[in-house]
Amino acid sequence: MERDNSRAAAPGQKSSPSPASNDVKKPVQRKPQPQQVLQKQAPASKPPVQEKAQATEPGETGNDIQQKTPMSKSARARITAAAMNAKNLQNTPRTVRSGDLPKAGPEEAKNNMTADTSEFDESQMMKTKTTDIGMREDKTSEDSVKPSKKGKKKGSGAGSNTLMSIVKAIVYIVFVGVVSIFLAIAIITVANDVFAFVKSDEPVEITLNENTTLDELADLLHDKGVIKYPEIFKLYAKYKKDDQKYIAGTYTINGMMNYSTLLGEFKEKFDYGTVRVTIPEGYTTDEIIDLFVSLGIGTREGFVDVIQNDEFDFWFLDEMEENGISEDRIYRLDGYLFPDTYEFYKGSSERTVIRKMLKRFSQIFTSEYRKQCETLGYTVDQIVTLASIIEKEAASPSEFFLVSSVFHNRLNNRWVYPRLESDATVVYVIQHETGERNVDLTYDTPYNTYLYDGLTPGPISNPSASAMLAALSPQETNYFYFVSNNGTTYFSETKAQHDALVEQFRQEALEKETEPVGLY
Q1: How far separated are the first and last CA of the chain, in Å rounded?
Q2: 114-125 pLDDT, tens per residue?
Q3: What integer best gives the mean pLDDT of the chain?
Q4: Looking at residues 259-273, what average pLDDT do you find?
Q5: 20 near 83, Cβ under 8 Å?
Q6: In which region does residue 348 sit, left (phi positive, over 0), alpha (psi from -120 to 50) or beta (all else)?
Q7: Which residues of 231-245 are buried (b: 16+ CB within 10 A; e: fewer)?
Q8: CA-based, 20 to 30 A from 493: which of 140, 157, 218, 511?
């Protein structure tokens, strides 16, 4: 039988290694085969050949074993055939029928049984090994699948989180949208009531009593249907700093009037037309105040308060405060209310008027003028004070530079001429305190340059640009005196010359029975 030929070697032939051992990739413990059977199969003249393959080292495969053990081609073919049979036995259960077995004697039957048992054991080992390998592969496959299941779980969780985030975003957007709509409606409704965009123009008659308060006015307008939100109306009035001075009387109004118009409807009406104001050069601060009040702009008290106390952002005022303001100064802003022609609203405030004149001064008194003050060794306020005196003493602008030379000569020679001796400085104080223009050279005041040395505590007028330029650029002369008569100014170098001119003009005045215009 073919099986017997593969297992029992013929006499004179070497027995080949078991094909099952060469097919194993890893070393496997095999059952020892009965020695007596192998010895019977081996010829008596040759030593028995070991049936088992050489023991494999760890990590060696069947191919490594084949390479280590040299064999013939026929043996290699038999091993391959045996491996194929073992594989077929693994996949297909083998059934052996008694009729298929050849008849044999007792010895052969014993040998065949031994060979079959050995082959059966090897087949069982191969099946067990294959099963173990398959189980390992299945376990490995399961292990490889587990992360993917976890991944699926994670993916499922991430998808759920994403869905929740989308739902939350939608809810938030819807909430914000709804709130925005309600707020927009509320704002539009209130704004329509405040600004009267779309309201009824039906006339409504309202009567106010004496000393009507803001709360009473708001309730009255609400009751008449003119406004919808009295509390908003009161807040608006407070925001606008309404003085609540409502004039008693009967008024005809309508819903198309906004809050601002309504508040003004119950007040005293003012003429907001413009008025043109020309301030003459050399005007005193008192004269400027009286001029504006006479034109219906501001009050005297309001102007005085602004001039003395209000803060203005101008460099020359900052410098004046840094250098110190004399306590004897009459008006803080004397000399800086620049004389010019202005146009104001009739309802302009005192601060608006004063600020406009100060701004004009800053435009006239340039940075070049400021540098000239430093060159001469005077402050800006001192030059403005000197210019105000020049403005009052000179008979005409053409004499400004000569008059300036007299004062500069005296200031530069104080050890000889310590006082300016200007009548205009005394007149300024008397006119401010009494309202009358008188000359009293004995009048005790720091502004009296006949009694006090140097410049006055502050300007005595608001000088023109020409007077300020003359104060900065005096003509070079040797004059220390001057006297004015009938619109003409006469200058002298010595006191004797000056006294002679003064006496001459007095005699002429006596003959004509007139007083000289000015003797200085």
Answers
A1: 168
A2: 444 444 444 454
A3: 78
A4: 79
A5: yes
A6: beta
A7: ebbbebbeeeebebe
A8: 511
Question: How far is it, in rounded angstroms, from Cα 414 to Cα 377?
Answer: 15
Selection from 257, 244, 24, 252 nearest residue 133 by Cα: 24
List the single range of 198-212, 292-306, 415-429 with lowest mean pLDDT.
198-212
Contact 248, 212 (CB under 8 A): yes
Q: How many angstroms separate the CA atoms of 292 and 351, rounded?
A: 12
3's CB contacts (< 8 A; 6+ apart) are 112, 115, 116, 119
Q: How confident is the model at residue 191 (pLDDT cuts 50, 70, 90)?
A: confident
Structure tokens at 115: 């060979």
SS3 category, 33 = coil
Residue pair 463/391 in contact (Cβ under 8 Å)? The answer is yes
CA distance 116 to 127: 16
pLDDT above 70 for 175? yes
Query: Over the stretch 203-235, which tens digit does the pLDDT of each residue have?
Result: 888 888 888 999 999 999 999 888 999 999 999
Taking alpha carbons only, the member of 398, 297, 400 closest to residue 357 is 297
| Look-up of token digits 């006055």 | 456
Listed in sequence order, the residues at least 6 apart from 119 whose beta carbon sits closer than 8 Å to its beta carbon are: 3, 7, 20
CA distance 136 to 159: 35
The answer to whether the pTM exceeds 0.85 is no
Q: How far is CA 57 from the centre of its chain?
A: 79
Provide the residue type at 489 as one letter. Answer: T
The phi, psi pair for 198, rounded to 5°, reads -130, 95
Secondary structure class of 310 (helix, strand, coil): coil
Confidence check: pLDDT of 19 > 90 = no
- CB atoms under 10 Å from CB of 302, counted, come to 18
Query: Which residue from 74, 89, 27 is spatially nearest to 52, judged by alpha carbons?
Result: 27
Supply the Cα-derived Rg of the chain in whole angstroms.
64
Of the two residues 45 and 176, the one the predictor is more confident about is: 176
Measure the CA angle with vertex 459, ends 432 and 362; round to 5°: 125
Q: How many other C-beta atoms are found inside a 10 Å radius of the C-beta of residue 344?
A: 18
| Cβ neighbours, 10 Å, residue 336 | 27
Q: Hey, is 436 helix, strand or coil?
A: coil
DSSP state of 257: S
